[in-house]
């Protein structure tokens, strides 16, 4: 059966990997190509690259980094950040991405999801959503978690899946950077409303036990984290060993 | 020189990079002469069977591939493996290259556990069938190592040519062989070190 996936996430700004805490106060961490090589050797099941730069100049730097990573790391690569059009899909796929993650671009223009799915297939379209509790409901936020769209998160995800999103990345703004565990309440709600697609949990991982608990929840396929791995507080071999000891199927 | 068949489907960047990383010379080509000159042929593919087969027809490569397959090792990957079979039932019925007996059918219809997600996407253990461990494709590969899949259709009625399967509430055809025509449903170029070792063994055939 399918192994549960462990996915380090590299937020790349101006050619460097940075990690946010509650989506603000970025800290420079390391060289993305070096980090990708390290994670590949450690047994990461997939890598996610988010381009969080704004200028065209830095965008070219990002695609150059992506090309270098894809030329030497032979595990699936997902790329997000600044994906607004099918041309943006084309740009990163040509640099070696396997899947493309959409977020704010799809919120601004939802037709991006079916357009991309038609051209590249559902399995290529990853819908990433930044979600926060507002007045007792889950609300989806845009622009890196800064802007409340007023949209119900579960409705948005259901719409996305119905229109071609083949995988979901669920970023909980409430638990991101807090290191107190994944947002299991949110993840259970998403798994119940979107049972047909893989769900990647993101936000809140602080220790191996958080992943062990995550994978007791049916319907969650993967755990994504940044800081815990980047700071080497937990290595992927340690984590996978702990998961396997608890009977979770992982690739070692 | 290994040749990757370029017929306009999908991204060949990773496949070329992975072969290159093994220290092998590789070219990406749609030229019959280049395929004839190559020592090995890699047939990639993503997308839908009918569309891919139509593209192969348009490029005039169908007879070329059939002729070359009799002469040198050929490896079909993912949809490229499916194209090796006689027929596919993906959106209608389509004729394949017919290099390996069998047919390609929707995986969803045959899942014993209907709650499993489709596509079958992610890392699954590849179990080599009894008496197939000594196949040269597995020279550097151990049964039970994980490989990366992304697919919604799978090959059936090809037991005599199946080398290895992965379990997804049923044994899913993972690797096949007929003579020196090989196919993998998974992506060796996305399967980390295990996948590279498999490609190395293929390149040494």
Explain how this protein is built:
Chain A has 252 residues and is α/β, with parallel strands linked by helices. Chain A is built from ten helices and twelve strands. Chain A has a single domain (5-245), classed as Aldolase class I (TIM Barrel, Alpha-Beta Barrel). Chain A is 36% helix and 28% strand. An eight-stranded parallel beta barrel of chain A has the order 1-4-5-6-7-10-11-12, surrounded by six helices. Chain A is globular. The two termini of chain B are 12 Å apart. In chain B, the strands form three sheets. Chain B has an eight-stranded mixed β-sheet with strand order 2-1-3-4-14-13-12-9. Chain B has a four-stranded mixed β-sheet with strand order 6-5-7-11. In chain B, strands 8-10 form a two-stranded antiparallel sheet. Chain B is of the alpha/beta class. Helix content of chain B is 26%, strand content 32%. Chain B has helices at 13-21, 32-37, 49-58, 61-69, 79-82, 107-110, 192-203; strands at residues 2-5, 26-29, 40-43, 74-77, 85-88, 94-95, 100-106, 120-125, 127-128, 146-151, 153-156, 162-167, 171-178, 181-184. The interface between A and B is medium-sized, with 30 and 31 residues.
Any key phrases for this structure?
heterodimer, A: 252 residues, alpha/beta, TIM Barrel, eight-stranded parallel beta barrel, 10 helices, 12 strands, globular, B: 205 residues, Rossmann fold, eight-stranded mixed beta sheet, four-stranded mixed beta sheet
Summarize, please.
The complex is a heterodimer of chains A (252) and B (205). Chain A has 252 residues and is α/β, with parallel strands linked by helices.
Question: Which secondary structure elements does this structure contain, and how are they paired or packed?
Answer:
The complex is a heterodimer of chains A (252) and B (205).
Chain A: E1 5-13, E2 16-21, E3 24-30, H1 32-42, E4 47-51, H2 56-70, E5 77-80, H3 86-94, E6 99-102, H4 104-108, H5 112-120, E7 125-134, E8 137-142, E9 147-152, H6 153-162, E10 167-172, H7 184-193, E11 199-202, H8 208-214, E12 222-225, H9 227-230, H10 236-245
Parallel strand pairs in A: 1-4, 1-12, 4-5, 5-6, 6-7, 7-10, 10-11, 11-12
Antiparallel strand pairs in A: 1-2, 2-3, 7-8, 8-9
Helix pairs in contact in A: 1-2, 8-10
Chain B: E1 2-5, H1 13-21, E2 26-29, H2 32-37, E3 40-43, H3 49-58, H4 61-69, E4 74-77, H5 79-82, E5 85-88, E6 94-95, E7 100-106, H6 107-110, E8 120-125, E9 127-128, E10 146-151, E11 153-156, E12 162-167, E13 171-178, E14 181-184, H7 192-203
Parallel strand pairs in B: 1-2, 1-3, 3-4, 4-14, 5-7
Antiparallel strand pairs in B: 5-6, 7-11, 8-10, 9-12, 12-13, 13-14
């Amino acid at each position: 059966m399918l192994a549960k996936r462990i996915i380090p996430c590299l937020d790349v700004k101006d050619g460097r990997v940075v990690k946010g805490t509650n989506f603000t106060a970025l800290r420079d961490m390391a060289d993305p190509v070096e980090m990708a090589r390290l994670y590949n050797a450690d047994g990461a099941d997939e890598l996610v690259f988010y381009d969080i730069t704004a200028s065209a100049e830095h965008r070219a730097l990002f695609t150059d980094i992506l090309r270098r990573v894809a030329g030497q790391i032979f595990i699936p690569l997902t790329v997000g950040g600044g994906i607004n059009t099918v041309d943006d899909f084309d740009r990163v796929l040509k640099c070696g991405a396997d899947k493309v993650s959409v977020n704010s671009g799809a919120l601004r223009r939802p037709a991006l999801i079916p357009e991309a799915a038609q051209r590249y297939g559902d399995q290529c379209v990853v819908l990433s959503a930044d979600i926060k509790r507002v007045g007792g409901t889950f609300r989806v936020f845009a622009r890196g978690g800064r802007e409340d769209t007023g949209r119900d998160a579960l409705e948005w995800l259901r719409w996305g899946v119905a229109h071609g999103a083949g995988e979901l990345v669920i970023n909980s703004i409430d638990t991101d950077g807090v290191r107190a565990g994944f947002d299991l309440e949110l993840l259970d709600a998403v798994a119940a409303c979107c049972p047909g697609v893989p769900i990647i949990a993101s936000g809140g991982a602080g220790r191996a036990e958080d992943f062990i608990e995550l994978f007791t929840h049916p319907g969650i396929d993967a755990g994504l984290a940044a800081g815990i791995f980047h700071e080497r507080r937990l290595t992927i071999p340690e984590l996978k060993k702990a998961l396997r000891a608890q009977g979770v199927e992982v690739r070692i | 020189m290994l040749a990757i068949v370029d017929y306009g489907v999908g991204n060949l960047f990773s496949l070329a990079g992975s072969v290159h990383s093994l220290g092998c010379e590789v070219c990406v080509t749609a030229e019959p002469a280049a395929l004839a000159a190559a020592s090995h042929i890699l047939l990639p593919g993503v997308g839908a069977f009918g569309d891919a087969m139509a593209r192969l027809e348009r490029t005039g490569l169908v007879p070329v591939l059939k002729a070359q397959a009799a002469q040198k090792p050929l490896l079909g990957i993912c949809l490229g493996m499916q194209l090796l079979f006689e027929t596919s039932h993906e959106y209608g019925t389509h004729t394949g290259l017919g290099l390996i007996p069998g047919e390609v059918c929707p995986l969803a219809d045959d899942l014993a556990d209907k709650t499993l997600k489709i596509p079958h996407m992610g890392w699954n253990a590849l179990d080599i069938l009894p008496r197939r461990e000594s196949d040269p494709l597995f020279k550097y590969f151990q049964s039970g190592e994980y490989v990366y899949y992304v697919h919604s259709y799978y090959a059936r009625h090809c037991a005599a040519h199946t080398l290895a399967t992965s379990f997804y509430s049923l044994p899913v055809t993972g690797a096949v062989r007929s003579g020196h025509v090989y196919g993998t449903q998974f992506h060796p170029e996305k399967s980390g070190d295990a996948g590279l070792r498999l490609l190395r063994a293929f390149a040494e055939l």
